[in-house]
Amino acid sequence: MGMERGKPSTHVPAKASSHGTVDRISKLPDDIMLTIFERLDICDAVRTSIVTKQWRHMPTMLNKLIIKVSSFEPDKDNRSKISLNDLDRANATMLEATKSILSRRNASQYPLHLLCLQFYLGDESIAIAKTVAYIMETQTVGSVELIIMTKKDHAHCTEDDVTFHGRQLMSLFEACPNAFAVLTCLKLENLSLNESDLPNIFCVCKKLEFLRLYNCDMGILSSLDVEHPRLGELEMDQCRFERVNLKWLPMLTMLTFEDWISQKDPLSFGYVPLLRNVSLNNIAFSWHKTLELSELLCNSRVNTLELNFMSEKIWIRPECARRLLPVFCRLRRVNLINVSEECDLNWTMFILQGAPSLEELHILVRDHLCQMLRNEELRREYEYSEKKGVDWEGAQLNFKHHKLTVLKIFGFRPDDKFVRYVRKVIEAAVNLQDIFLKQRFSLRNRITDGTNSFAVIHFPSF
């Protein structure tokens, strides 16, 4: 079908001649066009669908329907210029768009594999949740995801705000439990809830597979017990719990835990037989406990471990191999992120000693100046640690490691402490194959002279 005049599209590159030549894109099969439409923002998909009559039903044929309130904000790239009234209008527009697209779907012909809705807590929230519940009653939907945001972001939320947001969420939950019962993914932010609220949500959301909590609590320094039969991925960031007990999560495979305020071990692991990937990120202040991984990760058998020190204090304590072996026996890959430039790396040898199956060790050495607090007076006021590095006598022990094949160090510096460290790894890891260093070729001889290693040293750019 020819391109209609007066309705050019800047989103899908269609080509039509002045003689009414059939445009090539509109001749593409529906399955290819659907693939193209699924890659568009929902607003762009709707605008594009009006270019030709052939495309007008495309938004209602999508197998994956992702509708975000942020798509309807007047200046979505500059949140600071958006008023609360703007957010209210965006929420209302998002609701109408959702109803319009879903009401025109032919569910029997085009099954919906994914329905993902992003919206703000507010007057329209209950109507959005009821729409989800109705769709689930009338259509078959594979996965349902809700991203529930607050109109005030973390930086501007007071204690009264997060308490109010918590009440808003629970009013929504109590009004539409059927909508929550079908969720496979739930993302929440900026909430202070009562002690029973999250356990009640876990109980109702029986199909939940992914959960993200950002700046959430049940009262500052409260404890949270997490039990769920299907939860596979859990992300918690800046949540103000003293301790999170992962009591019974038989399907959990991935855990991301960031920025805790507890002065004790912030986590405990109960029954997590499938847990393979753990990521821990934290700025450690002087009052934070230095963690022992043998205790923290007790009852888990992780495959990949990522530790992000945010260019501040090293918040783990080196331990002997005997203590680490029960939790590191399956460890294959370790990522050490944002190790401060003030630190040497000798302490990391305890990981090699305690993880005999380790295959890859990745280290990023960096003082992240955009994120670091550098004012000395403020650092003292907020109780930043003066000493960032960690000492370990066991770094001098001679041992052999037979599984490590890859060592990557980004932020490598050609001073003696770094060169000595790489040589130490080379001497210990007898089957090391590749070393990636972000530095110059002139370092190669300084590192390998006097060793018998056949490892290839690479100097990649970022």
TrEMBL record:
Residues 1-20 are annotated as: Disordered. InterPro entries: F-box-like_dom_sf, F-box_dom, F-box_plant, LRR_At1g61320_AtMIF1, LRR_dom_sf. It comes from the Eukaryota. Pfam families: F-box, LRR_At1g61320_AtMIF1. Residues 22-69 form the F-box domain. This is F-box domain-containing protein.
